[in-house]
Structures are given as C-alpha cells and as structure tokens.
Amino acid sequence: MDWKAIATVAVGVIGLLGVLAQRRYNRAQGRDRAKADLDLLALLPEDSSVREELRNHIDETIRHIISVEDTERRDGFGIALASAFLIVSAAFVYFFIEYSGWWLALAGAFFFVFGLAGLASDVPRRQRDSRV
User: Is the pTM of this model over 0.90?
Assistant: First the structure.
C-alpha cells in the first residue's frame, strides 16, 4: 500500500474541508445579521421608503432567533456514536485490504451505513426534546 499517496490525498481533502468550513462559518447569521440590519436602519434617512420594510424584516429576524435558533441544537452523543461507527468501519476496511477477508468488507459496510445514517440525523440543528 502506498502510504505517501494516501497521505497526499488526505491532506488535500482536509484542506478542502477547512476552506468549506471557513466559508460556511464566516457568513453573517442570526444576531450578526440583525445587528448589521440595525446599523443600516440607523443610517437610513427618516423619510426613506424602505425604512418600514427594513424595520419589519429586523423584527422577523429577531423573532426567528428567539423562537428557533436559540432552541435548536445538535445531538452530541449521536454525533460521537456515528463517528465511532465510521472509525470502526475504516478499521474493518483497512483489515479487509490487508487480509482479504470478505466478511471484513461486509462488516465495514454495515458500520459505514449506520455511521452515515447517524450523522445525517444528528448533525443538523433541530429542536430536540429535553431528554437529549
């Protein structure tokens, strides 16, 4: 197995994921967006035709923050469990490549499917019940 090629691909993928994450989290959202809109509202002249529309938009944004964004969260335990499933899956795939046991590939596929399903259900922010 050519570890140098795998390391090169891994570094490239990690770099790409870092750029995508930075792009995602540097956008103005929620409170930052409402603050920017309030600053813009303060700069508008009193007789501006869009002043009332912007004020209504700010009210809607703040209502959304209070009702949704403050109550939505991710399921940390589910994310950790799904990540563990994916790590176990990677270990099975590694041993399948090294020892060529078909059952290792089958076990790896099983853990991979459940790991992806767990991440898909637990990573998005949702309103979760009090038990979680």
Answer: no
